[in-house]
What does this fold into?
Amino acid sequence: MLLDQGQSDRYPGNRTRGNGMNLGEMKCGESAVVTAVRGKGALRKRILDLGLTKGCRVTVVRSAPLGDPFELSLRGYRLTIRRAEAAIVEVAE
Amino acid sequence: MTTIALVGNPNSGKTTLFNKLTGSSQHVGNWPGVTIEKKVGKIRHNPDLQIVDLPGIYSLSPYSPEEVITRDYLMQECPDALINIIDASHFERNLYLTIQVLELGLPTVLVLNMMDDAAKNGLQIDTSRLSELTGCEVVETVALKNQGVSDIADAVRRAITRRSVRPVRYSAGFEQLLSDIGHAFGNSIPAEQARWYAVKTAENDPAVLEVLPATARPKVETLVAAYEKECKDDRLEITADERYAATEQFGKQVSFRGPALRRSASDRIDQVLTSRVWGLPVFLAVMFGVYYVSITALGGPLTDWVNDTFFGEWAIPGTQSFLESIGVDATVTSLLVDGILSGVGAVLGFLPEVAILFILLTVLEECGYMSRVAFILDRVFRRFGLSGKSFIPLIVSTGCGVPGIMSSRTIESDSERRITVMTTTFMPCSAKLPIIALISGALFGNSAAIALSAYVLGFVMVLLSGIILKKFRQFSGCSAPFVVEMPAYHWPLPSTILHTTGQRSWAFVRKAGTFILLACVAIWFFSSFDTSLKMVEDINDSMLAAFGNAVTAVFLPLGFGQDWEFTVATITGLLAKENVVGTFGTLFGLGENDNLGLWDQVGAMLTPVAGYAFLVFNLICAPCFAAIGAMRRELGSWRDTGKAVLYQCALAYGVGLIVYQFGRFVCYGQYGPGTVAAVLALSVLVYLVAAKDPLKPFRKTEGRPHLAQETVR
It folds into this structure.
C-alpha cells in the first residue's frame, strides 16, 4: 500500500547513472566526490546545509551494527545519516 | 536592558555556556538538541545584559521546529547583539551558520568553543585574523571548564559600541545578483537588513518572500530565474554552494589544519561500542546494568529500608504515639498520620531507587553514549515507525514522562516524532516505579523479574503501537532527514551529575510534598467521611467507597474490580502516578501495629494474576495530567491529544484484559464471558498489527489513499 511504504521508496534516488552511483550505496572506507544532489523539500535543504554540495569529497567511516545508518567524513567533520536519505546524493570516484 | 541571543549549531555547547554565563542550571546533555525552547537569563555581575539561549540550528532556514523557533526569534524580536558559538572542533561546518549570522547585520561576538578538542584534532585558528575579517569580537573558550567565559560580557559591550560586522563575500556573479536584488527592493527594506533579505530571496525562503513588497516580487523572480539558467542549477543549491565555497575560502584564511596529534580516543571507543559485533550486546548490557543497579542491587534494598524501617517502624508509629501523648484530637491525628504521613511516606520511600536511576541516566547522557544508541538502534526502530532518536525520549521517560515527551522534539520526521510522543509514556517512569515495587513485593516475593517485565512490557507496547500507528494516514508524513552527530566522549563532571541528579530528585520530593500531599489529604477526607460529613468507623461507608463502588465494575474483567480501592487508586493515578501507591498508603496505612502492612493487605486482596493486570493497566493507561499537557504541546491540538489518550487507555484495557483472562485460564483453569472478550481483544490487536491497511474494510468508497504528504513546517 502507498500508506505503508518504506523509507527507501519515499526518497527515490537514481540507482545508477553512467559511471556514477549514489551515496547510499557506498561501502565502508570508500571515498567519492558529490556530483549532484537530487530530491526536494526539507530533505534536500538539510542535506545541502550539512555540506553535501557538488564537488565535496565524502568518505564512509563506518556503518551501524545493522548496516544503516552510516557515518560519513566530510569537510573536516563527521556526519551520520540514513542510507535511504543519502540516496538523493549522486557521487563519482 | 540589552538583549543578547545565543545561536550556534546543535551540541556546540550553547547551554553549557549559558549556564556558566548566568549561573543558572539549565539541563545540558552530550547529545545534539537538548535545548528545545528558548530560555532567558541575566549575565552574572551584568544585570543589564539579558541573554536568550536558543535551540541549536545548522542554518537559518525554517525547516525544522528548532529552526523555526530560532529564526522567528531573530527576525521578530531583533535582539541587540548576538553571540554565535562555534564548535571549533567542527570549524568549517559551523562557519556555514556563522556566514548567515553575519548577514543579519547585528553586533556579533564569535565564541570559539571546545578549543581543546580542536587542538587535539590538529586545527589551529587565527583568532585575530578571524576578528579582523568579520569585524566581530572573538573569544576563545572551553565552556565546560569555564575557561574564557568571563571575557564574553565585555566583548558583547565592545561589539555593541563598535557595530562593525562585515559579512563574508561570495563569488562575483552571486554578489552581482545580490546587488541587483537589492536594487529591486528599492526603499522597502532597511539598509542594514538588505543583504540578509537579498540572500534569503535568492535562496527562495518562503518566510522572507512573504514580506517582500508585491511590486518587487516579479522583478526578483526574473533575476533569480536568469541566474539559475546561467549556473544550470536551482536556487537552493546555488546558495548552499556559494555559502560553502565562501566557508572553505574563509576557513583557509583563518585556520590551519595540521596532522591530528593522535587518533582520537572517541574513535577508538566507538570501534568497540558501535561495532557490528559488539554494538548491540554492549547496549543491552549497559541498559540491563542501569536498571539492575537502580532497582535490584542497590536501590531496592535502600527503598525497602526507608519504607519498612524508617516509615513503618519509626516515623509513623512514633508520630502517632507522640500526637496521642500530647492529647491531639483524634481526627487531626488521623489526618496527619493516616492521611499525610502514610500517603506521602509511601511515595518518598522510593527516593533512593529514583535517585540512583537518575544518577546512572545522567552519566549516560553526559558521557555521549546516547547519540551512539540512536546510531545503533535507528535501523531497528525505523521498522516500528520510530527513529533511532526515539530512544532518548524513551530513556528520559523512565525518569519522568514530561521531559521525555519534550525531548522527542529532536526527531526530524513528523510521523516518527508524533508516534514517539504518543507512546513514550508507556515506559515506566519514576512515579510508576512504586506501583511496580508494590505489586512485585506484595504478590511476587520481590522478584526482579516483575520489574524487568514492566520495562519490557513498556518497550514492547511502544514498538507495537509504532506498527499500528504508522498505518494511519495522519502519521505518514515526513519532514526532514535523520541526522546524528556523535559528539566526542567526555568524562561526566561529578559536579554536573550531582547537580542534575539533585535537581531531578528534588523535583520528585517537592512533588511528594506539595501535589501528592494535597491529593493524600483529599483521599483521606473522602475516605474518612460519609456524604453527611460524619466521620466513618468503617472505610467502606465513606464517600470514596461509594464513588469507587459505583464505577469499579468497569475493572471486573481485569480482575481488580471487586475491591473499590484499586479503582480509586487507578483514577487518582491520573493526577500523578505516585498517587496510586499514595492512595493505598492512606487507605490501608503503612504497617500500623493493629493493622496488616500495606503490602500484606494488597497481597491478601488480589491474586497474583489480577495484581499483574492492575500493574499492566496502570503502566499503559493515560499518563498523569502533567504528561498529557506535555503531549498537548507537542501534538499541537487537544483533538489529537484526546485521540492519543483514548488510544492509550484502550490499549491498556485490552492488554490488561488479555493478561488477566489468559493468566486466569492458564494459572487457575478459570474461564467465563471475560475469556471471550479477551480472545476478541487479542484478535483486534493481532488484526491491527498484521493488516496492511486496517481501516480498508470500513471505508465506504474504495478511494485511492492519499500519497504521504511531505509537510514542511
